[in-house]
Amino acid sequence: MVDIQQKQELKAFDDTKTGVKGLVDAGITKIPRIFTASTIENSFKTSTSTSNELQIPVIDLKYEELQKDGVARKDIIDKVVNHGIPKEVLDDMIEGVRRFHEQTHDVKKEFYTRDGSRKVRFFSNFDLYESKAANWRDTTICGMAPDPPKPEQLTITCREIMICYSKHVKRLRDIILELLSEALQLKRKHLEEMECGKGHVLVSHYYPACPEPDKTMGITEHSDPDFFTILLQDCIGGLQVFYQNQWVDIKPVEGALVINLRDLIQLISNDKLKSGKHRVLANTIGPRISVACFFNTYYYPSNRVYGPIKELLSEPSLPLYKETTARDYVLYYNSKGLRTPALEDFKL
């Protein structure tokens, strides 16, 4: 339960419109109380496995290899190589996010908002007022499809690269949807025809160096409310996935992208594909930069209802989840806050 004093501290932080970067620029040496994670959450940091035996599968997207191998494996998180996006585009996207967050606060404040209907926005912690503790990161969100914002609505610091990167991930999206369809033994275009990839949002996180990383999190453990995510991250590291009852480091691989399966793909696959629980540790190195492309129809005004795919159901494989629109699911997810699993509440 958030007490009155904490509410006041949260509002004071929010009203600065400068985010975590503003705290760092002010020269703080101790993190504010609102960022202090629970003792239980911090205790799990010491149980992380760094064993070399635990390897995340690498998926090579060369067409000829796909034809041979099909989609025999789909784990919680896969690293994708030979994805067709030039390295300079990946590097420019990371640098574009850096330019935005490291420009003057007065310029960034123009984009600062908690209005979820805005396609382009900057803020710190979407669940700032619902969470028990804030996370050590700032975020920009840009809804890029199916109805992209006008170029002038995008920040000039990364306008061109965001439009370019968005075009590249749309091509990669088509391949991934085909692979997931085949993994479910459905026709190749099944998920595409369900409009699982029709909309996408670029969510860019900036994690400044933290003076007390043992007391807070970059992002606390959670799953996400979309169908799947294409993740680009820099070389800093800190991403972890919960795998075989332990936290495993997902070390960055130059030129590789990370594919995360999410809540809505678990819902429509009736648990045949699982949403990956993950988190990001705070660090003293910083800034860590990541760009997550969320495939969802949140910004698309669609009344399409999603439930377990009928072709996957049979006796005794009955539906495990209630039907929902993608937008309603995201709105419910956001109202619960990052730490509370929303998908559990949609089980029948």
UniProtKB/TrEMBL annotation:
Coiled-coil annotated spans: none
SUPFAM superfamilies cross-referenced by the UniProt entry: Clavaminate synthase-like
Single GO MF annotation: dioxygenase activity
Name of the protein in question: Putative deacetoxyvindoline 4-hydroxylase
Cofactors that this protein relies on: Fe cation
InterPro entries attached to this UniProt entry: DIOX_N, IPNS-like_FE2OG_OXY, IPNS-like_sf, Oxoglu/Fe-dep_dioxygenase_dom
Family: Belongs to the iron/ascorbate-dependent oxidoreductase family.
Pfam families for the chain: 2OG-FeII_Oxy (PF03171), DIOX_N (PF14226)
Organism: Lupinus albus (White lupine)
PANTHER family listed in its UniProt record: 2OG-FE(II) OXYGENASE FAMILY OXIDOREDUCTASE (PTHR10209:SF776), OXIDOREDUCTASE, 2OG-FE II OXYGENASE FAMILY PROTEIN (PTHR10209)
Keywords recorded for this protein, A-Z: Iron, Metal-binding, Oxidoreductase
Residues covered by the Fe2OG dioxygenase domain: 197-298
